[in-house]
Records
---
Amino acid sequence: MLTKSQVKYIQTLNQKKFREENGVFVAEGQKIINELLAARHMEPTAIYATPEWWLHHAAIKNEIPFVHFQEITQQELERISFLTTPNQVLGIFKKPALPDEPLYQQGISLVLDGIQDPGNMGTIIRIADWFGIHHIIASPDSVDVFNPKVVQASMGSIARVHVAYHDLRHFIGEHQEVPLYAATLNGKPLSGFGKVSSAFLLVGNESKGVSRDLQQLAAHHITIPKYGEAESLNAAVATGIILSHIV
Amino acid sequence: MLTKSQVKYIQTLNQKKFREENGVFVAEGQKIINELLAARHMEPTAIYATPEWWLHHAAIKNEIPFVHFQEITQQELERISFLTTPNQVLGIFKKPALPDEPLYQQGISLVLDGIQDPGNMGTIIRIADWFGIHHIIASPDSVDVFNPKVVQASMGSIARVHVAYHDLRHFIGEHQEVPLYAATLNGKPLSGFGKVSSAFLLVGNESKGVSRDLQQLAAHHITIPKYGEAESLNAAVATGIILSHIV
């Protein structure tokens, strides 16, 4: 049975402050838990699951040491879950350490300026993973990547894409050898760009776009041609369209 | 002051059943309300807004007849709003009549097979609007386009894109003159396709994709090349990427 303090502890992990204090985050659902358990650098500290999940994952208890495994009822899962429809299993994982020296010079990395919506952040991580991008650099005011809704929307891709938070002006200044492309509404049409082997792709806040001072640092401004009336595209969709073109 | 029955009525509109009974839907926030008020075929039945909104929209009371206009407090807005952060104004609008004879033969239309997530549906409507697409045909099991979350995610584009619900097999059978493209995970790479002037683009359910029997009806199967590990792309993102390529 889940104790009151277990329930309370898990609930606090909805807040960034408590995730940082404890160095852990929550992930849920069969697919995402399986992806995280399969990723070498992801360490669970606890797995809470209903009998139907344990039925197919009993072996795991012998495979991973030092983890708190607990069978809980559907009702208990509903008490601790952050999902509208809890799905068999909730895990607590250690926040992974960032790789020592990310090789930003190789390939494409995403630079996110103030992405606020957890769904967008998770979707962007999933898109990065699809296009083989391993590094995302986010401004400090972007949503926390270990927010349960981000973890959920990333559909497990959080296990393969590293997100680091930096002051972007400073970060870009320190990596001037990498060509900087900004997604803007008044740049050169996408069709004017070819494949790119090394680049930072700078994507802006959902309503304000890329901030002006950062736009000025970008050598290339990419715009997705508009044929209709919508004022803008969703930030994650725009990221996907540009990556599909330049990767 | 809002009466109890007003509050109750608005709250019921979160359910499809009551939206259909009353032939209306709810939209919220300055941007979306402004877009809907600007669209000729959108008729409000009631506008509830805080004093700060009325300050800039007082003239509207004389411009549109037969509408219930009411000034409410922030607290009242919070009681009727479906948003986490209510934004000055909530409107009730008549569900627009579908155009008499949509010209599916011209341009590109989207055909959606079981899109479940309101955020995805709204984002797809916004993408369609960006690319100048006016018609979406959705399977009957797709989420209702007048769900408040869909309206919200469409960011006002719902005023310019018509969504009709049809049995897709039947609908496609009746429009065999229009080339059918399906977004799948095992088709021909996107780069193998050029611009398209007339087409149905068939996009599938978030987890199951396009159903098999519909895939078989499609002359062309489009796949977005994958360079990394993610199992799939978000349905709205995939729609945006393919449209960006073929429009």
---
Amino acid sequence: MEAVFSYLEKNKARFISELCDYVKFPSVSAQPEHRKDMTQCADWLANHCREIGLETRLAETPGNPVVVAKTPRAKNSHKPHYVVYGHYDVQPAEPFELWKTPPFEPRIEGTSLFARGASDNKGQNLAHLKAAEAYLKTGTELPCDLTFVIEGEEEVGSKNLAEFLRNNRQELHCESVVVSDTGMPSKKHPALTYALRGIVAVEIILHGPSRDLHSGIYGGTVDNPAMALSQLLAQLRDKNGRVAIPGFYQDVAPLSAYERKQFARLPLSIPAYQKLLGVRKLFGERGFTPMEQRSARPTIEINGLTSGYQGEGSKTIVPSWAKAKLTFRLVPNQRPSQVRAAILKQLKKLCPPTVRMEVKAGHGGEPYIVSPTSPHAQAGLRALKAAFGREPILMREGGSIPIVTDFKKILGADTLLLGLALPDDNAHSPNEKFDLECFAKGMQMSAHLWQELAKKT
Amino acid sequence: MEAVFSYLEKNKARFISELCDYVKFPSVSAQPEHRKDMTQCADWLANHCREIGLETRLAETPGNPVVVAKTPRAKNSHKPHYVVYGHYDVQPAEPFELWKTPPFEPRIEGTSLFARGASDNKGQNLAHLKAAEAYLKTGTELPCDLTFVIEGEEEVGSKNLAEFLRNNRQELHCESVVVSDTGMPSKKHPALTYALRGIVAVEIILHGPSRDLHSGIYGGTVDNPAMALSQLLAQLRDKNGRVAIPGFYQDVAPLSAYERKQFARLPLSIPAYQKLLGVRKLFGERGFTPMEQRSARPTIEINGLTSGYQGEGSKTIVPSWAKAKLTFRLVPNQRPSQVRAAILKQLKKLCPPTVRMEVKAGHGGEPYIVSPTSPHAQAGLRALKAAFGREPILMREGGSIPIVTDFKKILGADTLLLGLALPDDNAHSPNEKFDLECFAKGMQMSAHLWQELAKKT
């Protein structure tokens, strides 16, 4: 193992430059104009996996291809098999003007590498590839067989991954799936995440007059779609920060006293947290702490509003339509289909007869929870401790990785969530970054992990 | 006068082609990128006035210049003097994709000329210039001295016109101001407008976190500015379509029984009106007819909403800020300053402590009302009747021409509103048009008007 760790140490600078190459691709899956960048990014990644020594192929899907890269394995290998999941697609970079430097031109400042996708998920996933490279290039025997599955549609709901998993169920049969796409509270607190929130996305468009109308000539005789939308949205969250949709909370599993105790152990300074987010005052569901609110309670968020004139100055119109993009975060044991039905029912009930409502149901993902005391989780905790030299903590994560549910349903495998992102990594925000120390420790953690996992089997 | 009318008839085709040249300028005063187009449009117009035979100058202002063009006058002229007001700036053309043909490439279909500004106000104002041309080019004596005042900032609140009027008060001293920038119910209903609504514009920005946040990682702990904005806006209009701001209605003059009778005489088919606007159901202040709602009652309109991600697909963020553009239409005797103060007070009261509110007070304009039985108004009615061959009607207009109040205050002059726009002219909307029959009748009306006005003095 010495050879592995010395290889990781010696090649640090090259790994960083490779990550820079990787994040240069504007692989924004949500935006059709980046289709070509998606392909180029997938090609680059596949070639990189081949250079590392992995048996690599691009698996086509109706959308973006999946990179499948396997460690070379003995004929009748009896080694335990693990799938390492990641994604090469990134969030849209808008609003561009808030980036200090362009999102797809990586910039290093101190120990931070700034670029869209640096943390979510290119950097985190690359750490695992580099650990595999270290084993392969030093001729050190890997105690496990590994298959990297790196998709290009995570940020748009992984709509083709389930089908891919079903089509490759045998090849992907594994002990567990390993994913680094979550966070840790600080560099001093390496963390294993045992639960994730799910998601339901909905887009609402209220149609009013057939065109924008002169608000002087016609204003006062027709409903204003932007006002109708505001009044509709306003009714979806109550004063206590709760989602005001009948049936929304019906399947929410209450937090156990044990879990609330774990939450209370997590480091959180309210003033520091407020400063981090740039708000004067926090706001969340009454009766829960911020740590609980952000990871163990369901939410409603308006992600975007669009209506009428948005340019400089004023334009005196009654806009023809108004649109809102919404996402709801779900917790165990909410089901996206039940929640979506409840949302649509309430929207229909609230929509006034003066506008026509169009609802586009977006992606959905189930929440996830797994036992932190399983042998896999324990191996993960040991690997974290070995790499970071600190006692790791157990946590829930507020984000969604919908495909974790697919791994369970289709492959029958639990997922080990070993996140390397820091709270100020600005995932999904302007000036996203990845900490290069976390990058290096992540490689070490991955190198340890296969040893620890092999021990337990 | 025969020479005048025959000149108008013979040169019809050229006039249309000149209007086409005029509307080709994208003179959008609200958008800084069109500053150059503003200048070029003003230059074109000034040259055109000179060719007609008017003594023309460009009066500079801190914003766009005012075109001042005078009929040549005798040394100690005792003719009555009238100011003809118009504006060469136009509304923004967005959304471009809804235009059948580009907004600044005029297209003639039947008797309609499609282009941004065709009706509001280039075509309507040009009709008066063409009538003056007919007098001047045929050597027919004009019974009145005329001064055309054509500004370039009407669509952004005429912010420099009052100062211009003050600086040129003596030169502009006049019997009355003549403006064609309003509408008539149909070609069969030429109309004199005796009242206008005022306006107050306000822009609200709610600031939340210092950047867009990942809604999974942080969602649930901070207020969502788009939701806060929706909840704030929702409270500004009640179920009865009334503006829910204390003190907003305090100065509203009640409609007299006589006025409500006049309104009832105006032609309006509800199904045809709904079809025109493309709505299934009308909505307005309870207790008033649509004709009253659109012209004699105050309103609140959201002109635009902006927040977060607006592109394709979804982006799971808590947006950093949310913005709404609002305008309120005012009626006699509301005062913009009093109304604005009432609005700001209520906004402050409603804004939650979880977001920071920024309010930009936009332009304001007072409502206007004048007696329809004055000699000027009577002359206007006769000119309309002579040109259109129909009994003109008296009406209120829902739009705002804030400078009408300035004419009263600064020049001491009432304004004759002789609108030539039809209800389906799409002023401020995509596919704006001007009816070429109204253009022709408008020239005749203007030619008659100076005769009728001279009679009365």
